[in-house]
Write a structure and sequence with these properties.
alpha+beta; SMI1/KNR4-like; six-stranded mixed beta sheet; 10 strands
Length: 143
């Protein structure tokens, strides 16, 4: 079981809808529930294995949230970052590892559900599949 510390302030459905409008897609029910319950934060345990990624496993340093006090932990800030760094991809960064690489939700058929890992050190955006849905991603996090 994962424990989340350093959670963000409670958020409203209106804030989630505003994020979905900014993203141009709906959040999966599981991720929406995670945001309502935690609004980001630090997971424990925090290790996740990613197939075909050099240096795997990695950690999940922090989950991003809405209106977080630290700008780099804010979903909207990270959405703008990835749009600038990886134009043409329809993804929402939801967390980072200690190296600054991102875990993202891929928007497919109008819903953000598949979890990808984005190697931010690669010269061009390099994405790796982590889990088909958010809940499976959470289940992969281990000691």
């Amino acid at each position: 079981m994962i424990t989340i510390t350093e959670q963000g302030k409670p958020i409203t459905d209106d804030q989630i809808v505003a994020l979905e409008n900014e993203l141009g897609g709906k959040l999966s029910d599981a991720y929406r529930h995670f945001l309502i319950m935690n609004n980001g934060g630090k997971p424990y345990p925090d290790v996740v294995d990613i197939v075909d990624v050099p240096g795997s496993p990695t950690d999940v340093q922090i989950f991003f949230g809405i209106a977080r006090s630290v700008e780099s932990s804010d979903l909207s800030w990270n959405l703008a970052l990835i749009a600038d760094r990886c134009p043409g991809y329809h993804i929402l960064p939801i967390a980072c590892d200690s190296g600054g690489n991102l875990f993202c939700l891929k928007v497919s058929n109008g819903v953000a559900s598949e979890v990808l890992y984005c190697d931010m050190d690669a010269p061009v955006c390099a994405f790796y599949e982590v889990a088909p849905i958010f809940n499976e991603f959470m289940e992969k996090i281990r000691l």
